[in-house]
Amino acid sequence: MRGDTRSRSGGLLARLRAHWLSAVYLLVTAAVCVWVAVDWELVAHQDASFAAVWPLALTAPVSLLLLLVPGDSVFVYAACVVLGVGVNAWLLQRMEPGSRASER
User: Fold this and answer.
1) What domain range includes position 71?
2) Does the residue 102 lie in any domain?
3) Has residue 38 got a pLDDT over 80?
4) What is the pLDDT of residues 39-82, one digit of tens each?
5) CA atoms of 56 and 54, how far apart (whole Å)
6) Lowest CB count within 10 Å: 21, 76, 91, 100, which one?
7) Is residue 2 part of a domain?
């Protein structure tokens, strides 16, 4: 048993505050994805919309590499964006000055 009896208050919020750069990146990417979903469902286009390119651009280069995987569906697109944003947020967290990960 550890002698440290402090409780871990605000675990997720404390992490987001400590790694604010990756948290802002995740929030911006989520907002763009919501905008794309609204554009796809509610806006009538006579031609193709350019909106679906923005999440891929925000999560590049990982999402663009994953687009090489065969398959043409909404689920493949969503997987590319989710994996891309996850890897990029992790890299931002590792590169952030003052974090324990950047000191190693």
Assistant:
1) 11-95
2) no
3) yes
4) 888 888 777 778 889 999 999 998 888 888 887 888 888 889 99
5) 5
6) 100
7) no
- Check if the beta carbon of residue 55 is closer than 8 Å to that of residue 29: yes
**Could you report the per-residue pLDDT of 75-88, keeping only the tens digit for each?**
888 889 999 999 99
Largest CA distance in the chain: 66
Token readout for 58 is 């925000």
Find tokens 């891929």 and name the residue. 56
User: Does 5 reside within a domain?
Assistant: no
Let me know if residue 1 belongs to a domain: no
How many structural domains are present in the chain? 1
Contact 53, 36 (CB under 8 A): no
Which structure tokens are listed for 91? 């890299």
> How high is the pLDDT of residue 54?
93
Q: What letter represents residue 36's amino acid? A: V
Q: How many CA atoms lie within 13 A of 74 on its CB side?
A: 4
Using CA atoms, how far residue 20 sits from 11, 53, 66, 100, in Å, is 14, 25, 27, 14
The one-character DSSP state at 64 is: H
